[in-house]
Amino acid sequence: MVNSMRSLVGAWLIPVITALSRSTLRSTSTSASSAQFTIPAEADIGAQLIANIDDPQAVNAQSVCPGYKASDVQENLHGFIARLALAGEPCDVYGTDVDALTLTVDYQASSRLNIQILPTFTDAVNSSWFLLSEEFVPRPESGGATNASDLIFSWSNEPSFNFKVVRKATGDVLFDTEGTVLVYENQFIEFCTSLPEEYNLYGLGEHFNQLRLLKDANVTMYTADVGDPIDSNIYGQHPFYLDTRYFKTGNSSERAKRNESNASGQYTSHSHGVFLRNSHGQEVLLRSQRLTWRTLGGGIDLTFYSGPTQADVTKQYQISTVGLPAMQQYSTLGFHQCRWGYNNWSELAEVVANFERFEIPLEYIWTDIDYMHGYRDFENDQHRFSYSEGAKFLKDLHEGGRYYVPIVDAALYIPNPDNASDAYDTYTRGAAADVFIKNPDGSLYIGAVWPGYTVYPDWHHPNATEFWSNELVLWAKNVAYDGVWYDMAEVSSFCVGSCGSGNLTLNPVHPPFLLPGEPGNIVYDYPEYFNVTNATEAASASAGAASQTTSTGSSPSTSTAYLRTTPTPGVRNVNYPPYVINHVQTGHDLSVHAISPNSTHSDGVQEYDVHSLFGHQGLNATYQGLLKVWSGERRPFIIGRSTFAGSGKWAGHWGGDNISKWGSMYFSIAQALSFSLFGIPMFGVDTCGFNGNTDEELCNRWMQLSAFFPFYRNHNVLSAIPQEPYRWASVIEASKAAMQIRYALLPYYYTLFHLAHTTGSTVMRALAWEFPSDPTLAGVDTQFLVGPSIMAIPVLEPQADTVKGVFPGVAHGEVWYDWYTRTVVKAEAGANTTILAPLSHIPVYVRGGSILPLQEPALTTREARNTTWSLLAALGSDGTASGQLYLDDGVSVTPNATLNVDFGASHSSLHITTTGKWKEVNSLANVTVLGVKKASPLVKFNGKQMSTVNYDSTAHILFVGGLQEVTKSGAWAEDWVLEW
């Protein structure tokens, strides 16, 4: 949910007041009965730093540092170990140079090579070095051998230590540090590699931009509580990239130059992956034929994945390193509705009733921080969200086959010691267990978030997860929730430093910015072209925005003098490191809108070293808590905002605080595809936009697009106009049409999730990954695939009734069928095809060679799972097709029974084979086969002639109905064959 509010219309900073004055602003919390102290806006303004990449005075470490020399090589079964020593005088440019390093080269598996360069722990400085614990992020096990590897590591000392990683099969150099020096200091590490002239890199998240990383991009990785600014670091940290290289067929040693007009299939491609296991703030600088990787500490722990396809790389990364994605409950694939501004249980009941009234599917209803008592976790406001009224609402909701998810924030309120009625049992229990982060002097670190001054669970404390789990269990006794929305875990604070220390008698306090809807921050923003479609309303909003900007006054002035720090030998300046990353927050200060880097964990580790892991560890704690809430029987459902490599083991992710603009919808596709690479397939965005007001056209198109994202939720900001899909007639039409397809495909989605959970495959896929021999697809992120078989081509701009799309593979006989007409698409190879797409219509296509199991759409997934089955078989150009289906109870962590069904079609027949003990009682209603060139008048099911048969010889569509009678015991109760 919203946090920094800077992206909203109007000034986000309130007029400056002194630290001890009281504001006349009142909290939106009903717990505040008198005027409430507002944290001064200046409390969230830190030092003014200049990012090194923008600093003309910044020293280029490559030009002044000596690098290292390797010696004392000791080979072993899996690789070798060597010593690295400084090759000259220390440069100490952004820290203290490390004299001695240890290089370990480990051929962990045939497809995986690990390279570690770590300080040699022989002195007091290096022995205190922070290296990422396997407790936080496990390391892959070793077990490979040099001669069995797909990759070759070589090194040289000329002119200083450098190394190469080469693909053995092709000789292609994947990583090459020759011509550069290794820089290794206590607050700065830098290494470089050459890149092909025309490179295709993906990943290095989390960012809000195009899918393929731009040349000359500066990619910062450091978790930040901020909206969705383009090209800046945001909520998660994923130091992993996919590198895809195209080669002309028959000449694998010659790298192909991009040829946008080429669609003749004269190319092949190889992909590999690179992961840096490091949690410090990082920057990757992409330049012409060069990648420079910089971190603020830690170690070099690089793993290479040989691929050679994107699918191989993704599986190798997940299976060996970060873990496989959590299996989602079947119900979570339904539609989710939320907003910041649902004020009580009655409003939620009304929303649910409206979805039923307009016959729009709804599975989950969510609440933002409105339900909380004073914005406190694990406590409901008993005036508006009482436990007794909630119990009735949730009982009715659950009986109707629907579910409820509330938000839970990362920080916890600390009570006012002068107010006996301000007790907060969650804090009391946590304080007794001593599980909160401290200041360096051992006092509590007290920041500020929604409830006021707050403390933060210390996930390094051995009892912190147990404490958090217990709070979830206790709360579940009062609120029968069905999942957790874990927010603000970047980790966020609305002030710099331990601002609550000495100020607790002011609690609860108001944030240092105006909430949406408060005077001075009325939401007047609308999407592009709103002035065309709604001229009168747009003029009124524009006048209101102009008046508001004038009346709110100016923001506090900030110094234009930049703070520069220089290294002190042997000492780390964690609050203001000598190297300044291009951090998104004001002044690039790591303390702004976050807890300070010098805040300290129970094991002595400073936040500086583990900042980007807070959300990751909090997701784990929440996962363990939900296992206890449901006694280990129900799969935890968690959507988190701040993630790290491996967070997908526990949770899904939503795209954060986007904006109700067409650009936000456009970039959501690339964001979703990136999280497919990161192993977090349960991804979606705030459909129709979060910040600002949406409008009918944008919401129409966005509800269509998000219907094909794995996580499908509508959510918007406090005080903006309501945007439930039933608010506009055309959005009702668009939503229902798109949901008809999604809900029919739920068995397909569920099967894809099972495959992701068990094999590391992806759910949403870029065209380039599925068609690796076509370099023209390398940058396509305006359309996408769901699994291998469904392609969506959404409209992503206003005032359009057509969209251009490409149909990959047609030059090689690939066939695409229109979902709606079931007919073959006539498309030219390598060309953009203009497709009719009037409002409320999203073009969707089925790939030839696919067999899709379908069920009837319904208002809930429970109802949908109780409908009859059908099969859609889309034959490829060779007359064959295949598919699969996975079923279980949809809920259990370890299902008692499962079912796998394999579908195959060839030689004018379609057959299934089944394995497993899950009993699917719903019968098969019909089978539709597309691309049937010729059909016999006698169509048989297991040898029995069928009477309900229709064959369209023009469209080449065969329909066989009336199959309920021959599948009474269940569609997949036994193997069968259909012949035509």
UniProtKB/TrEMBL annotation:
The segment annotated Disordered runs over 545-569
What's the protein called, per UniProt?
alpha-glucosidase
Domain (Glycoside hydrolase family 31 TIM barrel): give its ranges.
Answer: 325-752
SUPFAM superfamilies attached here?
Answer: (Trans)glycosidases, Galactose mutarotase-like, Glycosyl hydrolase domain
* Keyword Signal in annotation: yes
Question: Under which main EC class is this enzyme filed?
Answer: hydrolase
Cite the entry's keywords alphabetically: Glycoprotein, Glycosidase, Hydrolase, Signal
Per the UniProt record, which EC number(s) apply here?
3.2.1.20
Provide the family line: Belongs to the glycosyl hydrolase 31 family.
Q: Name one GO molecular function term.
A: alpha-1,4-glucosidase activity
Signal peptide feature range? 1-19
Q: Which residues form the Glycosyl hydrolase family 31 C-terminal domain?
A: 760-852
- Which residues are in the Glycoside hydrolase family 31 N-terminal domain? 165-245
Q: Does the keyword Transmembrane helix apply?
A: no
**UniProt biased composition (Low complexity):** 545-561
